[in-house]
Write a structure and sequence with these properties.
The complex is a heterodimer of chains A (118) and B (114).
Chain A: E1 4-5, E2 10-14, E3 19-21, E4 24-25, E5 32-39, E6 46-52, E7 60-61, E8 64-69, E9 74-79, E10 88-96, E11 107-108, E12 112-117
Chain B: E1 4-7, E2 10-13, E3 19-25, E4 31-37, E5 43-49, E6 56-57, E7 64-66, E8 76-78, E9 87-94, E10 104-105, E11 109-113
Parallel strand pairs in B: 2-11
Antiparallel strand pairs in B: 1-3, 3-8, 4-5, 4-9, 5-6, 7-8, 9-10, 9-11
The chains are: A mainly beta (118), B mainly beta (114).
Amino acid sequence: AQKITQTQPGMFVQEKEAVTLDCTYDTSDPSYGLFWYKQPSSGEMIFLIYQGSYDQQNATEGRYSLNFQKARKSANLVISASQLGDSAMYFCAMREGIVSGGYNKLIFGAGTRLAVHP
Amino acid sequence: DGGITQSPKYLFRKEGQNVTLSCEQNLNHDAMYWYRQDPGQGLRLIYYSQIVNDFQKGDIAEGYSVSREKKESFPLTVTSAQKNPTAFYLCASSTPGLRGGELFFGEGSRLTVL
């Protein structure tokens, strides 16, 4: 079974509008972490936001927020006021369990390609 | 500036040849990772290392080998046993921290087998 599912292969948004990128996850471990990364055409993976399974509030980082619905096992990324530079691939990832031994094994979804139009 | 340096950025290999991808970090992180990315797919974990002289297989380790002789370096060798080595390879490092111990990535190495 897929651990991380991103059902939107591609998304389009108008500049300055908000967009939501979907992510659902599957784990039976009560402790887990959820991450979103951005991958521009250059290839580097850029960290955007993190949500721990026990965090009471939704995470926010500037224009990025994570809509965490634990019962539904969803962790959607919301980008407010889209900019042309937001055009990229976006990946949702999960760590099952706590950070043990200092390493952090992440499982990635297949990604969503976002195109921002002027 | 602290970061992760991968080289080469592009690499071409003939079938049957081994090739080594370099990964160096100056972030003083203990943990390092190698991921593989194929078109239309997410990243898959090849190997990871928690400390010097120790490393563990990830989900797709067959046909790959690594070493961790120095904290800063975690080279990946793609051997001739890897049946489909053409892919984009990403190296990462991490340390426990406030943001869930996020992974820091290099810019990647694109390997093409001719």
